[in-house]
Design goal:
Blueprint: H1 2-22, E1 26-31, H2 37-41, E2 44-52, E3 60-69, E4 72-78, E5 80-82, E6 88-92, E7 100-109, E8 112-121, E9 124-125, E10 130-132, H3 138-145
Antiparallel strand pairs: 1-2, 2-6, 3-4, 3-7, 5-6, 7-8, 8-9, 8-10
Length: 146
Amino acid sequence: MRHTLRNTTPALAVLALAGQLWAGGFFLTLGSPDSSPEARKLNAVLTIKMDGCHDPGAATVTATAIGMVNGERREIPLQLHAMTTPGMYALAQQWPKEGRWVLKLAARNGELFTNSLVPVTPNGISTEAKRDYREFNAADISAMLK
């Protein structure tokens, strides 16, 4: 009995720690402003909500529109409007209608990091966002702009 317990203790410790790694997480939930009167009032084209096992009010998020207009690459820092729900933001269109655009959303909460690339289509914001816990690089963005 003692031998069995000694052999299983390390395995149980690893399982307990693994559960903490997958619990909660930190991610961005992208939504339609159509479902929020507050977002519609702010003329939002997208809502962004901090989600996961953390304090959403303590998280920070930045947004940048990256695009190709007439063969020239452009970057526009975007202003986000905090909504009444902690950790929820409204994004209004602040980039030109011409060209191809991708929205880069990056969020931090302490040591946690997440980001999303969101394509802008002629019909509006795409629901096909690319998400990752590593920061997207220029190649990732260029691939989405093609």
